[in-house]
Amino acid sequence: MFLWQYLTLLLLTTVQIYKAQRCEEFTDLNLGHAIIGTSLKIRLLLYTRDNGTCGTLVSHTDLSAHPQFNLSRPTTFVIHGYRPTGSPPVWVQKISELLLAREDLNVIVVDWNHGAANVNYLKAVENTYKAANNLTAFIKMLQEYGASLSSIHMIGVSLGAHMSGLIGANLKGFLGRITALDPAGPQFTGTPPERRLDPKDAQFVDVLHTDIDALGFREPLGHIDFYANGGTDQPGCPKTIFSGGAYFKCDHQRSVLLFLDSVVRTCVIKAFPCSSYEDFLDGNCLNCDRFGAAGCPVFGYDIIEWKEVLLRLNQTKTYFTTNPDSPFCMTNYRLEVMIWNKDVRWGYMTVKLHGNGKEAVATIDHKTSQFNKYTETNLFAQFDKDLQSVEKVSLKFSTGNVFKPKYKLRVLRIRLTHLERKERPLCRYDVLLEVNKEVTFRPISCEESNF
Ligand SMILES: [Ca+2]
Ligand SMILES: [Ca+2]
Question: The Lipase domain covers which part of the protein (predicted)?
């Protein structure tokens, strides 16, 4: 062999090895200027436990080149939404890592940035339908290679949620599961089920709503719909336009952050079936008997464990509240207050729990509460963290009215009951609350007898 032939061979082999090991990145179209492209190039990036951080570009027609794509494992698709700036979603790498840490899966990140990044939202919506057909063909090919539709889970964000629904309908509802993270509202609200996500699109459809007043979809779309913090606005997100881009996307994007935490099981977010957020905050929806032994549904990745009971219930609307940051879960207590003032009293209650050098706070101020003589007022207190043991309790009563500084609440008994842990409620008898003055005390175990 001539030297040049040998060198060419060596070079070709090196290129082959390089090609095999090349990590594919998500398309970045963030070029700092308006994107008006019309192409619909869909890239499928495969991640498995063997290549958890290094994406492999998968062929749309031939799987033989991808031995690591093992169809005896379940396959999870992750589909992003509208990308007005064309930049890659910040969470896209994280989600495959976290999913793979939980389960031995094929994770396919669907990179349809070429279709989703467009200054014209309507164009991106149009591309959602086109991309859905393209992905349906890919999944049909997976079936030919032996994949079962039941083992396919689609996690779709915003437009990606409807795209999952469209694919699901193309496949006659046989897909195993669709998780919709704040499904897009604009251009989908008011459309018939065949134009958007609906419960018939998969065997199980779970939906999270975080921005129903702007980018998200208001009505329920799945077997279970979770309305985080009522589904409208999220804590910690800017309330004015002066905060720039975050103002537009913070509520919407929170859906992904909440879901990621549920994959890691940072903490458990219990959701409560209820007809409205107001009713939920009033503490009228804390009963989960309809779910039988399973108890209240847990938001996120693990909701699949409630599948059977949820399918029997047809469609369930649930609520929960969160903290502004991770860990997002809150700790729920019932607070019962009985007063002996002659006249009716109105006001807000702030409760602090102290224990192990930490403090947990619950402010019950979604509306003014009414307190009547010798009548138990039931309040729903949600604390920012869970203290394993409560040593002291602080209470503050306020009215929001500066002209009534002498207003007092003569409390006969307060009782605090942890709603998840079976432990004895904490009580305090006979305490005087002056407006805006915090009173701290050591609670005692409640007496069995009732007044
Ligand atoms: Ca549909
Ligand atoms: Ca909002």
Answer: 38-328
